[in-house]
Amino acid sequence: MLFEVFKVAMLASMACASVLPTSSKRLTPRAAQAADQILQIAPKSSTCANAPAPDECATNVQAAPFLIAAMSKYSIYSVSEIAAVLSVIAFESGDFKYNTNHFPAPGRPGQGTRAMFMPNYVLLYARSIPELADKLNAITTASTVDGLSDDKLNAIRALVLPDEYTWGSAAWFLTTQCASIRSSLQTGSQAGYEAYMGCLGVTATDDRLAYWKQATAAFS
After folding, report:
1. Which segment of the chain is annotated as a signal peptide (predicted)?
2. 147-155: long-range contacts (C-beta < 8 A, 24 or more apart)?
């Protein structure tokens, strides 16, 4: 089961000095197995050939260690929560093809991460990461994005686009912004998933549900 793969990999990572991988090129056997399961959730993530935004594309193999690290960092161990979070990442990033918003062209300034955060949440997420404090304060010390230029919005976004941050964005959001619905999400029910979508500010459309069902099936 994918849950067991993630659980064992997370426990192993927590025994190390840092839970964040330094490379996605050398996978542990557990991470390699997780990558195979992630492919079931994001079926188009096996290759970046002909990707519309080549510099932003990542494969399931590249994503696996960072997703494992993210679940460990934010202490997400419920199989239903992991499935839901992975489904959101797969949907929002177009099977890991995008790290910033491109639609409508040229894209909304400041929107991005693998969870495709709006700029206000990009700022909140960046503020939550201690090692980014100095760089973020050099851009803005504001607590909101109101009145910030497009260049500043994009500069804030750039701070959280590296792999060690972008893959953790959805996990951070669940644990910090959606605490009130976690018990419902943990039931694994569609009602719980819909509550999660409500917290994200979206509806459980058919295409979102399809990703969630793929993720749920990958755990069975």
Report:
1. 1-17
2. 148/110, 148/119, 150/109, 150/110, 153/109, 153/110, 153/119, 153/122, 154/109, 154/110
